[in-house]
Each structure stands twice: as structure tokens, then as C-alpha cells.
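Q:
My hope is that you can spare some time for a protein that puzzles me. I hope you can help me see how the letters and the C-alpha cells relate. Thank you; the sequence and its C-alpha cells follow:
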Amino acid sequence: MNLRQLSRTWDELGQRDPLWAILSHDDKRDNRWDLHEFLQTGRTEIEEALAYVARFQPDLPRRNALDFGCGVGRLSQALAEHFEKVDGIDIAESMICQARTINRHGAACSYHHNTAPDLRMFPAQSFDFLYSNLTLQHMPPELGHSYIRELCRLLRTGGALIFEIPIRPRRDRSRLGVLLSKVIRSAQLLWLRSVRGQPVMDMFGTPPERVRKLVVESSCQLVDISESGSAGPDWVCQRYCVVR
């Protein structure tokens, strides 16, 4: 999967069922999310994330924040309650269009459709706080690693970057069970793509050692790694906190 294919997949998901594509709860499929409830999950998540960051950057500046993989703005809108200016960026044009419609913060919250494998639309050290969740996990590793470097490039001195990315599928089942799960998942993806023509969300993992190397090479410091459940029960996932 390349960037163009990834953009096309998420653009179609944004047209079909955007809120469920972002928070894929079983009971919310087929456009059953209530918008107020959906946005409230963003407030809760950002409040927890800022409390977490305060352990490492207690004097975090509150000027500019970036929501990478913003979708329809669930987290961008929450960030705008804590920062002077928020930028949301996404590869799906349909998501960005809806984010601009939902936006409740006027010029304090801006949305950008990005089709490049980098974030060159922003100069180096543009943001005090950068946040990305439920995004990098859907990108092929080479592309995801390129964006991690870019997020580090955009981090200001004294700021913080938080992102989450899976490591690997869980291995607490038998080897046969894991193999059968992979075969079934591959068959499901093939059927959805080829037979039904539906967009599907791929999942990818990255070892923590690789993430650490990317951060160090970007002249930043990895100050914390903690387990996260955001990738679902079938994946081992980590949250990373980076400072400059």
C-alpha cells in the first residue's frame, strides 16, 4: 500500500461512515455515533494526555498544537480548548471537509489536507504539542517512520510529542490459533476489497527499538514508553512521549 492508496481508502471511509472509521465501536457502525458523544471522547482523551505530559514537561507552553491524523477533528476541537492555535492534518479530503464543518473554534483551529509523505507545509519547530493516536498504526512502516521523523522535526524546544503505535499482534494464543487468525483476516480483507469493493483498515506494527532510533536520530529525547490499549485487544501497543 502506498500513500495514494492509503489516501483513497480513508477518503472513502470518510464518505461512508467517518465517525465509526475513527472510533470503531461495534455498536456505532453505520453512522450511529452521536456527534456530541463522539466529541466528548476527544475531550476526555486530551485531558488525560495533557495530565500525562505534565509529568515530563510541567511548564508545557500552550501556544501551538498539531493533531496528526485529525480525521473530522475529534481531538483538534478538544485541543483548541487548551491551546491558542491548533492545526489538524489528514490525508483524507472527505475527513477534512467534515472537520471544517464541525469546527467550533473559528480561526483558532485550522484543517489541512496533506497528500505528501512529509509535513513540509510547516517549518521546523512549529509546535509546542503534537499528538497522534489511531493513525500511525494504519500506515505501512516505511511511511509511518517518515512521519515520526517529521513530527520530531516540528517539535519545539520545551514542547512534547505523544504518539501511539502497535508493536505486534498479541501472542497469548497458540501458534495454530495465531496462524488461523492471520489466514482468516487475510481472507476477510481480500473478500472486502476484491469482492465487495469496500475500503479496509490495515494494521502495522513497529518495534520499540526502531521508534527509539528514529527519535534519537531526530535530535529528540524519548522520555517515556507505556502500554496502550488503543489498537484493540489483538495488538500490543505502546504510547511514546518525546521532548526536545
Notes: Residues 183-196 have pLDDT under 50 and may be disordered. The chain is about 40% helix and 20% strand. The two ends are 32 Å apart (CA to CA). The domain at 3-243 is CATH 3.40.50.150 (Rossmann fold).
